[in-house]
Amino acid sequence: MMAVVCPGALAGDRLLPVLPCLAPLLPEGGLRRGSVVEVAGSTSLALALAAAASDAGSWCPAVAVGRPALHPEAAVELGMCLERFPLVAARPGSGPGGWPWVVAALLDAVDVVVAWPPTLLRPGDAHRLVAR
Question: Which residue segment(s) compose the domain that 20 sits in?
């Protein structure tokens, strides 16, 4: 699982907020736009990383192949604003509607993407997404 932060339009506003308890864990105390933060094994931590940005007005969709395996109530308990937290189901594969395609489209449109990569993600697709 990974939380991906995409580039923003405002150059002066480069950091997205995180919960105060998580700020000391990040080099700049927030999520730098354009960075990738990998969270292995903890859905709660990935959602917590995005919660303050969501509360501050950022859209933070969750993307997985099929239906993301999480409960919206859990996201709310961590501080996520449900109005800006759509659950997006992607298809397997790399074509239109496939996970890399959906994530790329979201990276161009929103501040934070919480994504569960498919088991068989092609290395080229992963490199292209990280380079965005």
Answer: 2-131
